[in-house]
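Much of what follows relies on a compact textual record of a protein's fold. A record is reproduced here so that you can trace the correspondence yourselves:
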Amino acid sequence: MAKTFSRPKCLSEQETHYCPGCTHGIIHRLVAEAIDDLQISGRTVGIAPVGCAVLCYNYFTFDFQEAAHGRAPAMATGIKRVRPDLIVFTYQGDGDLASIGMGEIVHAANRGEKFTTVFVNNTVYGMTGGQMAPTTMPNQKTTTSPFGRNVEEVGMPIRVAELLASLATPAYISRQAAISPKYIVRAKKAIRQAFQYQVEKRCFSFVEVISTCPTNWGMTPADALKWAEKTMIPYYPLGDLKTPESVKEE
């Protein structure tokens, strides 16, 4: 029989520490497949700050750097400017990127830094205890909002992709999801495109991936997938929000 499925070369054989039903593993594979497809593993550097993916260096076979909480874009900027020949990407969660690191990602995108960001949005601080994040949905219960997110007190969830897409600087900004095969296929295409733009030295590239966190949501993995599709996607619509070509057209 023909072999139709195999581990990407960029993924190690290390067993991950993620909770059952976590979609980080899927996103790791999509990143690895994109890097394999583009044949850039020998010059790729990933950056992971504090968060569920803090141990990323164990799961990929190329170089990785650790960054302080929220500061991955700053580190990526430094590496890419000193070594523009490298392919540099940050892998960040919503608590990290959209809260303590919001200033970092906004200014990096506004400067047009030519690295790539994979932004995993599961609406909570996953690693540090399930606290409310800037992306937590209205009325969603977390350890710091046990009665649900009160938007009158803390505001509505921040749509990071739309925020970055509003900047005048050319960029590739996309939002996809890792919650069912049809969405995962589209996410793979977007992540590959993001790296392709960097290979071509075109622009800053950013892919937000709607994800689940069954443990901190207090749901089964199956129920978490359903909740993400029913609740998150209507508020966080999927698709490409900005491309460098669309900026030129304007």
